[in-house]
Amino acid sequence: NRRYPKYPGSIVRTILCWLTITIFTPILCGLASLAIILRPFCGSKCQEKVSLTFMRMWMRAVLSSAGVAYTVYGVETLDPNARYVFGHLTLVQVSNHTSHLDACCVVSSLPFNVVGLAKKSIANIPLLGWAIWCAGTVFIDRKNHIKAVTGCDKLARQLNESKSKSLWVCPEGTRTPDGRMRPFKKGGLVLAIDTKLPVVPMAVCGAYDVMQKHSYLLHPRPVKIVLGDPISTEGLTYEDRDTLTALVEEKVAGLITKHDTGPAPQDNLIVEPFWRCFTGQPDCTKSYSVRRKLTAE
């Protein structure tokens, strides 16, 4: 491995994880999909919240069975009642994209109502694709520019109408094949400008070492989710998209350089107990879902 010592049990963890996916996808993703029947009675906001709750359970179960312990840095700098755009969500979060497990780590650990953009092919996965759609994700056709723009416009309208949704964007567009960050695309940042939501640079460190692209073998590793300071988009226009993209890319790269250096003494190394995956949001006072201040380093 690039940085981490070899961990025993990769084969066992891989088997456990795929068994968890096989058993709990029909149950939890099925319940998340069935929540759509609540929409006529309590509205889309309530229905999406119920679907997201079941999806969080599923994602936490996947991380637990895979032996992934995660630590969140910098969340204390964010207003829990605000919205953002997260880039690796109202808030826009923008992050790098290293593994299939990025989404599990981000959605499981952040105390925000997070929605995102996903490639159209995921919508065709039985139960999982339906559940993600019910939780508010918008699917875009990356091969058709007009349809992709239409999907982004639809999501922008949803964010403008909502007072609770945050957005998670991976501007690289696809997972990295070698662990290195790829150039950022502008589409997700244009959404931030359109919705006037602040952008939070975010780095997911370690997920590439857990599950690499084109591999189904899992290696238990600690993962860090590091959030930077929000970047305001007030006053920005479409003409500022290149400047904003370059700034966010620089911030995310800086977070990766600083934090993607292997396990640190203050990192959480205890995997969340499997039974707790089916309870509420991870308790930040517990060692298996630690949220550290950036000043701790």
Describe the structure.
There is one protein chain. This protein is of the alpha/beta class and 297 residues long. The chain is built from 8 helices and 9 strands. Strands 1, 2, 3, 7, 8 and 9 form a 6-stranded mixed sheet that branches. Helix 4 links the parallel strand 4 and strand 5. Helix 2 packs across helix 3 and helix 5 runs parallel beside helix 6. The radius of gyration is 18 Å and the shape is globular.
Concise account of the structure shown:
With 297 residues, the chain is of the alpha/beta class. The protein has helices at 10-34, 39-66, 102-109, 128-134, 145-161, 187-195, 207-210, 241-259, and strands at 69-73, 84-87, 91-95, 113-119, 138-140, 165-169, 199-205, 222-227, 291-292.
Percentage of residues in strands? 5-15%
Order of helix and strand elements from N to C terminus:
HHEEEHEHEHEHEHEHE
Biggest sheet features: 6 strands, mixed
Q: Give the mean pLDDT.
A: 77
Shape: globular
Distance between the termini: 25 Å
Secondary structure category: alpha/beta
Tally the beta strands: 9
Helix content: 25-40%
- As a whole number of angstroms, the C-alpha radius of gyration is 18 Å
Unreliable sequence segments: 1-5, 283-297
Number of helices: 8
Helix and strand arrangement:
Layout: H1 10-34, H2 39-66, E1 69-73, E2 84-87, E3 91-95, H3 102-109, E4 113-119, H4 128-134, E5 138-140, H5 145-161, E6 165-169, H6 187-195, E7 199-205, H7 207-210, E8 222-227, H8 241-259, E9 291-292
Parallel strand pairs: 1-8, 1-9, 2-3, 2-7, 3-7, 4-5, 4-6
Antiparallel strand pairs: 7-8
Helix pairs in contact: 1-2, 1-4, 2-3, 5-6
